[in-house]
Specification:
Chain B: GO terms for molecular function: iron-sulfur cluster binding; metal ion binding. Chain B: It comes from Oligosphaera ethanolica. Chain B: Keywords: Iron, Iron-sulfur, Metal-binding. Chain B: InterPro entries: 4Fe4S_Fe-S-bd, 4Fe4S_Fe_S_CS, CobQ/CobB/MinD/ParA_Nub-bd_dom, P-loop_NTPase. The complex is a heterodimer of chains A (120) and B (284). Chain A is α/β, with parallel strands linked by helices and 120 residues long. Chain A has a single domain, classed as Dinitrogenase iron-molybdenum cofactor biosynthesis domain (Nucleotidyltransferase, domain 5). Chain A is 28% helix and 21% strand. Chain A is built from four helices and five strands. In chain A, helix 3 links the parallel strand 4 and strand 5. In chain A, helix 2 packs parallel to helix 3. The relative contact order of chain A is 0.22. In chain B, 33% of the residues lie in helices and 27% in strands. In chain B, the strands form two sheets. A nine-stranded mixed β-sheet of chain B has the order 3-6-7-2-8-1-9-10-11, sandwiched between helices. Chain B has two domains: 199 residues, Rossmann fold (3-Layer(aba) Sandwich), CATH 3.40.50; 60 residues, Alpha-Beta Plaits (2-Layer Sandwich), CATH 3.30.70. Chain B has ten helices and eleven strands. In chain B, a hairpin with a 3-residue loop joins strand 6 and strand 7. Chain B is an alpha/beta fold and 284 residues long. The chains are: A alpha/beta (120), B alpha/beta (284). Chains A and B meet through helix 2 and helix 3 of A and strand 4 of B. Bound molecules: iron/sulfur cluster (2 copies). The site of one iron/sulfur cluster has 14 residues of chain B, from strand 3 and helix 3.
Amino acid sequence: MKVALTSRGDSLDVLLDSRFGRAANFLLWDAATGAVEVLANTQSLNAAQGAGIQAAMHVVESGAEAVITGHCGPKAFRVLKEAGVKVYLTKALDGHEAIRLFQAGELKEADAADVEGHWA
Amino acid sequence: MKIAVASGKGGTGKTTLSLALAEAITGGCTLLDCDVEEPNCHLFVAGEPWRQLPVEVTVPEFTNDGCDGCGRCVRACRFQALARLGKRVLVFPEMCHSCGGCVLACPHKVLREVPFGIGKLEFRHGRGFELISGVMDVGHAMAPPLIRQLKEHIPPEGLVIMDAPPGTACSMVMTVRNNDFVILVTEPTPFGLHDLKLAVETLREIDLPCGVVINRADDGVALIRDYCQEAGLPVLLEIPYRRDIAEGYSRGGGLLAVCPDLRESFRTLLNTQIPAILQAEGRL
Ligand code: SF4
Ligand code: SF4
């Protein structure tokens, strides 16, 4: 299973990006191998509107089955939910901490967006 | 004659002036509240609307019939209102501009157009005028189509006053377009001046004649006067800053209730000053 984490950089050592749609990068972490692949979010970052929708489509296409991020807006949440991608919200600072919490089962699956559009 | 009341920013007294103008004129007029995101003219008009009309736009609906996941619809949309998930397309009606592009782009006629409510129009009888307010549903960003449908109810004859949305964005332009004249309301502060300049630039670009009403005029009024003179803009009226006016508002009274003496100034403004300006500019 692959998990997408929103990140400000390109490795698990770097701070997580708390926003989903406007995150700098997505880190695709492979739970089986521990490998990390970087997925740039450039297109969504440059979008005047609908960044969350675009970012969510990217994540879905990457094959990720779960997302770990700080906040998620309603439009992105709808895309992810429809595609069957689980959303976990965390205040973890970096990728390692987020994954540790995820593996320990300490992250709760979000059942709704937690911020208004435009915010995330 | 159609006259829009606009301002570069909110809170300058645009609505108060619109209402007072509509009330001051004898012989009746129609007041259109085009500030559809925050309409508040009706707060000063007693009673429930005697008529309400829903406002709808057309948005695509995904019918699930024969989609091959080609993604042409998503690429055709300039407003990111669609998301494709495999052979399924999600529609975000609140982002849609109703251009119909996606419906045309789909080779398999999977998308069809359906109505989608974005707000309503409310009709009320005011004191000596008819009020029609555009009210946008919360969470919507599509003010221009609502304003367009609101403006379809402009009567063919008589005076029409339109309370425009603040700022200089699409919805303001949509409101003032096709008016005969625009009254710009401003305050005598550096911020007021800055926003006034932006509004004047916008109006000159679309070639609309305008004049300025300075609200809450105090010692700073020279700032606006000087700019108007430089820019060749007529100052139509200065409403003085007075404590009793501010207090009157906070009790919910209109401008004319607090300052009956302004009634005559407003009549002159509408009946004499504006026609004279239009005549001088060769527009009448
Ligand atoms: S009608 Fe136009 S704006 Fe609306 S979803 Fe289709 S292409 Fe996008
Ligand atoms: S254009 Fe038509 S067939 Fe292609 S993805 Fe969109 S809805 Fe499906």
